[in-house]
Amino acid sequence: MMHVRKLHFRVVDDFASIGRPRFSMLAYEEDGGKIAKVLPVVYELLTPETEHAPCEPTMRFGEEDARGLMDALWAAGIRPSNEVGSEGEKAALMAHLADLRRLVFDAPKVTP
C-alpha cells in the first residue's frame, strides 16, 4: 500500500477514442514523487449471515483527499446524478438573480 502525505487524483478515460468510457484512477503525491494506480474494486456478494459483519473500508483518506477525488471526477466529465452545482455556481446564480430583481423592481418607473 502506498502511503502519501497528500493525495492528488487524476481520472483518465481509457477508451475515449472509441466512445466507451472506462475510467482509471491514478493517485500521486503533491511533490510529484510517487505515483500509484488505483486497483479495480472487487464486489463480494453478502449472505444473510455476513451482511452485518464488520468490513474494511473500500478506500481510506481524509476529507481533503476525498474532495480532490471529486474534483478529478468532475474534471473527467463525471457529474452527480442529482445535478447539484458547486457552491461557486450557486453563488453566481444567486448574484445573477439579485441583479435581475434590481432591474425589474428598482428600475425607475416609466409612465406612458
**Biggest sheet: strand arrangement:** 1-2-3
The class by helix and strand makeup works out as: alpha+beta
Question: From N to C, what is the helix and strand string?
Answer: EEEHH
- Spans where pLDDT lies below 50 across 5 or more residues: none
Global geometry? elongated
How many distinct helices? 2
Helix content: 25-40%
State the total count of DSSP E strands: 3
Radius of gyration: 23 Å
Q: Give the N-terminus to C-terminus distance in angstroms.
A: 76 Å
Strand percentage lies at 15-25%
How many domains would you count in the coordinates?
1
Question: What does this entry look like structurally?
Answer:
With 112 residues, this protein is of the alpha+beta class. The chain has one domain. The protein is 29% helix and 15% strand. The chain is elongated and about 75 Å long. The model has no long low-confidence stretch (mean pLDDT 77).
